[in-house]
Amino acid sequence: MTIGTAEKKDVPLYLTGPGTVTPNASVRITSRVDGTIQQIAFTEGQDVRKGQLLALIDPRPYQAVLDAAKAKLQQDQAGLANAQLILTRYATLQKNGFSTEENLDTQKSLVAQYQAGITGDEAAISAAETNLSYTRIEAPIDGRTGLRLVDEGNVVRGADATAIVVLTQLKPITIIAPMPEASRPALTAALARGTVVADAVSKADGSVIAAGKLTVIDNAIDPASGTLKVRALFDNGDLALWPGQFLDLRVTLDVARGATTVPSSAIQRGEGGLFVYRVGSDNRVTAQSVTAGTIGGGVAVITSGLAPGDRVATSGQFRLAPGVSAVDSPAAAGSQQPAAPSGAGKTTGTGEG
């Protein structure tokens, strides 16, 4: 049998939910114009920076359209200059009575046509330049490329749904987890107080994989499951988290300051509620009713029934009974575990949150 001591310590109050690692941003890289892929400028699994070239589509057809639009602009600008010169002459002739009002109005209309044509030419040049820029497919975010889905030499179209590659941001990265709807007030209050620590916890061994912070609580409760989604952000500099990974998200809601605690293995459950085997100064045990707050992480918070310094049995309780010596308990005494004393308290929280 092992004996532990009730201690006074600060205990974090956790809320835990099953989480899924989700990219902070994920972009399907597709073409916005039709053409032949001349170059794939990335390798699969490569880290790329925003603005870095990923693929190049044959730009020659779009360059030709741009050159034609620029030539049309020059033509119309020359025509406008000539029309304005003639308009000036007509105005002088009409003032001196050597030209009709009709000729002057006709020339004004021609000048306006050239001006409108130049505006259209400038719009055509802008559209051609935009389409030409689309032949350079660049990374819209920092991230890591996935598998290449289209090879060089293939014809792609702006209307195609097929992506050339999927670009995923891994640093930073997020975890999304559902939490019970009853936890919404505590989550909201924690965020209102400031930074809320969130840990990514392995489902395999309970170890903390990464530390981050809670960033947002969803604005709606799922009526089908009665849960509320939360998102936590992680720097993920060591790439310990990977998109699609399934783990637990543990949120620290608050810290219970100066709480009386015992090892969670000391807590026993009987017909009357929770109790512990308290070890007296004479080393004899008594069944002591307790009220527990949170129980998790190997620690139980005791809200009533024990005081700091009290000794309790933390293992081998099956050998104990009230009045038995904790130092020299007979094996026969543990053939049956006695029920908890009448009126034993009930827990106020049986999990990590």
TrEMBL record:
In residue numbers, the region (Disordered) covers 326-353
The chain positions of domain Multidrug resistance protein MdtA-like beta-barrel read 172-254
The family line of this record is: Belongs to the membrane fusion protein (MFP) (TC 8.A.1) family.
Domain Multidrug resistance protein MdtA-like barrel-sandwich hybrid residue range list: 27-167
InterPro entries the UniProt entry points to: MdtA-like_b-barrel (IPR058626), MdtA-like_BSH (IPR058625), MdtA-like_C (IPR058627), MdtA-like_HH (IPR058624), RND_pump_MFP (IPR006143)
Instruction: List where Low complexity composition bias occurs.
Output: 329-345
Q: Superkingdom of this entry's organism?
A: Bacteria
| Primary localization | membrane
- The answer on whether this UniProt entry bears the keyword Lyase reads no
Locations listed in the record: Cell membrane
Keyword set, alphabetical order: Cell inner membrane, Cell membrane, Membrane, Transport
Protein name, entry field:
Multidrug efflux system membrane fusion protein
Q: Which residues form the Multidrug resistance protein MdtA-like C-terminal permuted SH3 domain?
A: 259-316
Q: Which residues form the Multidrug resistance protein MdtA-like alpha-helical hairpin domain?
A: 66-135
Keyword Secreted belongs to the record: no
A UniProt-annotated Pfam family: RND-MFP_C
Organism the protein comes from: Kaistia geumhonensis
Alphabetized SUPFAM superfamilies for the sequence = HlyD-like secretion proteins
